[in-house]
Amino acid sequence: MREVLEKLAKLQRLDNELKILQDKSNDIPKRIEGLKLTVDNKKQEIKECQEKILNLKKENKLLEVELKSVEDKIVQYSAQLYSAKTNEQYKAFLKEIDAQKKEKTRIEDKIIEVLENLELTEKKLKELESELKDTEVIAAENLKKLEKEDAEVKKAIKEREEIRQELIKELTAETVAIYERIRKSKNGVAVVIVNDERCQGCFNPLPAQKILEIKKNDRIHFCEYCGRIVISKEINSTLA
Ligand SMILES: [Zn+2]
Prior knowledge:
Blueprint: H1 2-81, H2 87-169, H3 173-185, E1 191-195, E2 198-199, H4 208-215, E3 221-222, E4 229-231
Parallel strand pairs: 1-4
Antiparallel strand pairs: 1-2, 3-4
Helix pairs in contact: 1-2
The chain binds zinc ion (ZN).
Residues 199, 201-202, 204, 223, 225-226, 228 line the site of zinc ion (ZN).
């Protein structure tokens, strides 16, 4: 019977390890996705920056056209100034010239603003492009690491699954069924040890008599609180 208990403990340890490995394995695609996302985000930032540059250049062109039109008007009104026939007409032309000059200043200020913004955005684009290169290098390195880790984890899972299959063959179908039933209902933990006179599955204190019985290692005992298989530390001290 002691052998059966040892095998059950070994089975539990294998399943604990498999659980950790499975979680790791399931996590790897998400981590790979995360790497791609950092690169994609950087590319998106670059795209937005390039669009902003295009828009600023368009805006600048429009402003240049506007400026030219205002300058033409100023020339036109200035020429007309000398052909004014009345004082009122003269004053009206002066007023118009003044208004166009103000408009010219406004457009020129706006052009300066747009050009400054364009310069900053182009600088930012260069930075982003350099950052993208770094991000891509780091992502490629990490991807290699993750692919290696993935292969290692899968190998470790396969190894343990093979050992598990052999181990199961060495137990009776009934014992395996009990183990699996408890494992499924108790969040993956079917076999626990007694420590400090407590079941290490539910941490309830076990009666002294029961502990003595468990220590005999001569049959399968169940925790009366959580229903898990409880074994002595002597059988396996590595199970929590
Ligand atoms: Zn318990």
